[in-house]
Design goal:
Length: about 80
């Protein structure tokens, strides 16, 4: 089993597991979100947010990928 560095943060009633995808690879983020999100058997969170390299480096410093606790991909995350 590989080590995965993360930070858990919360705000306004939501909490997420953040992963620096510049520094480490997450092969199947949806599976990771399902594994870490349960409150009694995992880290406990509303989902996983990957901080990724930007799609267009000239326009942004990074890109966010958000996965809900059920593994579905979120389009937006205001609290994230």
């Amino acid at each position: 089993m590989a080590t995965l560095r993360f930070t858990k943060m919360h705000g306004l009633g939501n909490d997420y597991v953040y992963i620096d995808a510049f520094a480490q690879s997450v092969p199947v983020p949806a599976d990771l979100a399902r594994r870490v999100s349960p409150r009694h058997t995992g880290i406990g969170s509303d989902g996983v947010i990957l901080i990724c390299p930007p799609s267009r480096p000239q326009k942004a410093d990074c890109r966010m990928e958000m996965y809900n606790a059920d593994g579905s991909r979120g389009e937006m995350c205001g609290n994230g």
